Amino acid sequence: MDKLLSECGIASRKESAKAVRAGIVSVNSVIAKRTDMQVDPEKDIILYDSRRVVWREFVYLMLNKPDGYVSATEDTRDPVVTELLPEEYRKMGVFPCGRLDKHTLGLMLLTNDGQLSHRLLSPRRHVTKSYAFCVKFPLSDADVAQLEAGVDIGGYMTKPCTLALTGEREGVISITEGKYHQIKLMMETVHNQITYLERRSFGPLVLDPDLDRGEWRELSPEEIEALRQA
Predict the structure, then answer these.
(1) Annotated catalytic sites, by residue?
(2) On the chain, which terminus has fewer CB atoms closer than 10 Å, C or N?
(3) pLDDT tens across 108-149, in order?
């Protein structure tokens, strides 16, 4: 039982022992007496302080990343995106699937499913990521054509991408890679500078417009399945 409570992010094994001594853990309406008792999370009804314990091996969260947060689980200087989540998820070991720069906003997937994260980030999978952007100077048709064909960013030639302008200095760019500061460096090759960058989609996952900056929600079963297919 203590292993179940720990993996669900509800309580550490030490906290589970305290909860059992306090009489706030029950199994099938019977107050638990031992933390090492065997339980079947699919059949037994387990309550922790009147809350139903539902076992899940993996969790998948969509976060609307705000400015100033680092895409990591810990950092000595800046706040990290996992600090925006309830402690329950942090105890389950969720981590960012991929990275957004400190000042890049928008869609971030957080999960404790390492295998799925690895597949989504693998260069061989070519999972598309789309970003809304603004730049300092107007982009010409020649600039767009050059960026879409691929540009040299410090000795690495980017793969072809798509770029749709919505104004002289703004648009949406879709890439299948995730090199460090990639879009920023791509714009520098055409003598421009990113002033705003927000990820709008990651594979089939689209940023929920109902999520304000810093807000999150769990993915639906349909969204999870779409990610697995991606």
Answers:
(1) 101
(2) C
(3) 999 999 999 999 998 777 899 999 999 999 999 999 999 999
140 with 194: CB under 8 angstroms?
no
For 82-116, the pLDDT digits (tens) are 999 998 899 889 999 999 999 999 999 999 999 99
Query: For every residue of 96-151, which 3-state class applies, written as one string?
Result: ECCCCCCCCEEEEEEECCHHHHHHHHCHHHCCCEEEEEEECCCCCHHHHHHHHHCC
Tokens of 31: 């107050």
For the chain, domains (ranges, CATH) are 2-52 (3.10.290.10), 60-122+205-229 (3.30.70.580), 128-202 (3.30.70.1560)
